[in-house]
């Protein structure tokens, strides 16, 4: 199949927006230029659209194998396509845990058989996420793992983390850190602040996250192993990561839309739909995350798409699991808050949602160029729509952003030369 994407403004690798047509042949972009001839291609009308590279999400939970009532590889990658994502890195806290090459291979094969988006497993650091013995990193990488994490919990033992970093250095992959010291976070449900106090719910202090980040920066420097910090949330952590980067220690970090846009007060408004780990914190923490995004300390955006069943997220806060969905709204959330508002250039946002995570995990993705894979998404920078969880492809429906009016929604996504998502005309704009 040949497509001609005509009349759109294309985000070029240098960050400029240019009126260009793109021709797709098979799974590749074969031509980019002004007013390309139609020849034998099928036209995709991109007038009033911005053409972006397929986005890259370094942190999603697809729940397969084992928790298919929450999500499946099929529904999770459909949600990715609807959110404009061509690549997602999936976390290993499945059942069983992603700690063998067979599971890594099965996930990749299954995702490829659907063809909505590429899935890159981040395999477990330790067997069963038990925090004791290292998995076979070399075998897991050979099977397709792009990094290692015990996400869902932190690696409590410093000696185990040190060993993991030595292996990671040898094999040139990052250790992806969910930073949480359980002696400080245990039994907590919300940020340890005013709202938790008001609701008489045990809190999770910022230090539970920041002390682990500080420890792993020290271990990264000592071993030379690269660390990527997940879903950074407290001000203290942003500061130590900034200092580490300045000192040349090989660390990178991601931040989520919810930690950039929301605070602990959400628990009063939406209850368990706003329960997430790490928790939504104080206004000063949120401001520090925004500052970290803008100065490049937090160089990547991750959704931490964490679907649970409707029943689980309907429970009271203390009985509900941590996490909510994000894939289908992450780009419009970020576009509306940072680009539409004039705070950030579109090129910088897309770098943080495509080019930089692709480079970090060596995915050969994240920019539009002739000869590259035809992974791209068209966004509508004009129309506003409300977030309606009932329209999600994900099985997860919980999000504290339900009802928000956003612009910059993906309207059409192409993955490897095939149309994998088009926004239904019934989802009309509200202004
Ligand atoms: N973020 C969450 O609140 N939950 C994640 C685990 C995680 O990413 O730490 C999950 O698996 O549900
Ligand atoms: Zn995590």
Structure description:
Catalyzes the reversible cyclization of carbamoyl aspartate to dihydroorotate. Pfam families: DHOase. Belongs to the metallo-dependent hydrolases superfamily. DHOase family. Class I DHOase subfamily. Its cofactor is Zn(2+). It is an enzyme of class 3 (hydrolase). With about 425 residues, this protein is an alpha/beta fold. It has two domains: about 1-50 and about 370-420, Urease, subunit C, domain 1; about 55-360, TIM Barrel. The chain has helices at about 75-80, 100-115, 135-145, 160-170, 180-185, 195-200, 205-225, 235-245, 255-260, 265-270, 285-295, 310-315, 330-340, 345-360, and strands at about 1-10, 15-25, 30-35, 40-45, 50-55, 55-60, 85-90, 120, 125, 150, 175, 190, 205, 225-230, 250-255, 300, 375-385, 405-415, 420. The strands form four sheets. Strands 1, 2, 3, 4, 5, 17, 18 and 19 form an eight-stranded mixed sheet that branches. A hairpin with a 2-residue loop joins strand 18 (about 405-415) and strand 19. Helix 2 runs parallel beside helix 3 (about 135-145). The longest helix has 18 residues, at about 205-225. The two termini are about 35 Å apart. About 55% of the residues are buried. Bound molecules: N-carbamoyl-L-aspartate and zinc ion. Zinc ion binds near residues 152, 178 and 231.
């Amino acid at each position: 199949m040949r497509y001609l994407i005509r009349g759109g403004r294309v985000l070029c690798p240098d960050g400029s927006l240019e009126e260009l047509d793109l021709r797709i042949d098979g799974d590749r972009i074969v031509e980019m230029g002004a007013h390309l001839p139609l020849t034998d291609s099928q036209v995709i009308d991109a007038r009033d659209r911005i053409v972006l590279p397929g986005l890259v999400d370094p942190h999603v939970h697809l729940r397969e194998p084992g928790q298919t009532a929450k999500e499946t590889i099929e529904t999770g990658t459909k949600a990715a396509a609807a959110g404009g994502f061509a690549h997602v890195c999936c976390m290993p806290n499945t059942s069983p845990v992603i700690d063998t090459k067979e599971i890594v291979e099965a996930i990749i094969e299954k995702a490829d058989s659907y063809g909505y988006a590429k899935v890159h497993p981040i395999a477990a650091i330790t067997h069963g996420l038990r925090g004791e013995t290292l998995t076979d990193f070399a075998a897991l990488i050979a099977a397709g793992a792009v990094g290692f994490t015990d996400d869902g919990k932190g690696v409590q033992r410093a000696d185990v983390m040190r060993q993991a970093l030595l292996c990671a250095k040898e094999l040139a992959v990052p250790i992806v850190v969910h930073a949480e010291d359980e002696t400080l976070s245990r039994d907590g449900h919300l940020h340890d602040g005013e709202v938790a106090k008001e609701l008489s719910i045990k809190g999770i202090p910022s230090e539970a996250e920041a002390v682990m980040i500080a420890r792993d920066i020290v271990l990264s420097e000592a071993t030379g192993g690269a660390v990527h910090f997940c879903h950074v949330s407290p001000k203290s952590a942003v500061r130590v990561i900034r200092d580490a980067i300045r000192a040349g220690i090989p660390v990178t970090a991601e931040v989520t839309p919810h930690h950039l846009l929301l605070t602990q007060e959400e628990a009063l408004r939406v209850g368990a739909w706003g329960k997430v780990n790490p928790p939504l914190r104080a206004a000063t923490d949120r401001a520090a995350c925004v500052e970290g995004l803008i100065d490049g300390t937090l160089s990547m955006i991750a959704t931490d798409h964490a679907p649970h069943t409707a029943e689980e997220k309907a429970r009271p806060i203390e009985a509900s699991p941590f996490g909510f969905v994000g894939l289908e709204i992450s780009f419009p959330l970020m576009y509306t808050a940072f680009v539409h508002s004039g705070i950030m250039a579109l090129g910088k946002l897309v770098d943080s949602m495509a080019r930089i995570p692709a480079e970090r995990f060596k995915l050969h993705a994240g920019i539009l160029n002739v000869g590259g894979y035809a992974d791209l998404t068209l966004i509508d920078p004009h129309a506003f729509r409300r977030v309606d969880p009932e329209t999600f492809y994900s099985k997860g429906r919980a999000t504290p952003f339900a009802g928000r009016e956003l612009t910059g929604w993906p309207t059409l996504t192409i993955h490897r030369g095939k149309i994998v998502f088009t926004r239904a005309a019934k989802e009309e704009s509200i202004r």
